Predict the structure of Pantothenate kinase.
Amino acid sequence: MDSRTVLNEENRHNAYIEFKRKEWAKLRANVKLTLSEDDIKQLQGINESLSMQEVIDIYLPLSRLLNLYVSARQYRHAVRDKFLNSEHEKVPYIIGVAGSVAVGKSTSARILQALLSRWPEHPKVALVTTDGFLRPNKELVARNLMHKKGFPESFDTKALIDFVAAIKSGQKLITAPLYSHLTYDILPNKSLQFEQPDIVILEGLNVLQTPSVDELDKTFVSDFVDFSIFVDADKGLLKTWYIQRFLKFREGAFTDPNAYFHSYSKMSEKEAVAIASKIWDEINAVNLEKNIRPTRDRANLILQKSINHQVSEVQLRK
Ligand SMILES: Nc1ncnc2c1ncn2[C@@H]1O[C@H](COP(=O)(O)OP(=O)(O)O)[C@@H](O)[C@H]1O
Ligand SMILES: CC(C)(COP(=O)(O)O)[C@@H](O)C(=O)NCCC(=O)O
């Protein structure tokens, strides 16, 4: 089935193979997939609250599946070159990670980056977040979009599509713009560079979004994504995770006088919770329902999270 087809409730159930956590965890069945002390250190560096059981039960089977997909793609390219009797440039495999603000896209993407780079078939795994393609605050202010950060219109979608198209054309050096949660803006003089990665993980709210009806002739970001993952959770949990992250930023990054939200670090916890709750309700929850969750059924795989970020169910497209 075309992975862009949006399913209704009746047929979405039939489009995916569903696994309860325990069934999914069994699919790790491969002796090579053990974690060394160094792996554990690296993974804990990604997020101190990340449980190693979660990595073992959920992300190791997922990285095994992805390794099989990437290897199959590499094999297909080798077949093409054999047929043409000429070698063509190496093109990275693109994995998309989509989902709500604060669902854990960036954490999941970083876990996958760490795990996938352990395989000899694809040691170079680059991670790009689509935040870098948000329009700078100056431009958002001019377009009256500051209260719409993260909505489709707040991104420079053309630049993002050009970026993924360039990766898929085999461009050797990839340069990605960067966004800072500290300055709450694009970093004007900074960028990330990668040289010929084997895999690019593209993480962001908008990875599975399509253009609006009046722009139907446009290309989608997902046209260039080889395998897409949607991370999902109940909206009550998402709000809690957003507020918790906001409080963490308040105690850490926001104490920096250069932080855009520095004033929040001086407020009482109660006031900060009220502000985070308002930002969630008025911006991120609206964006989730209107623009992000409707893209879930385009994903090749859905990770359904429950309390404490535990994945309770995995759905894999047939
Ligand atoms: N697997 C996980 N285990 C524990 N905490 C997590 C996990 N994934 C995300 N978090 C926490 O949830 C919050 C949101 O995660 P983050 O990766 O920043 O989300 P996103 O990139 O989707 O906005 C952060 O505070 C992060 O530490
Ligand atoms: C910059 C973002 C759109 C990116 O989302 P994320 O990487 O956290 O999923 C988001 O963090 C954001 O700033 N949303 C606007 C409202 C707010 O949360 O401040």
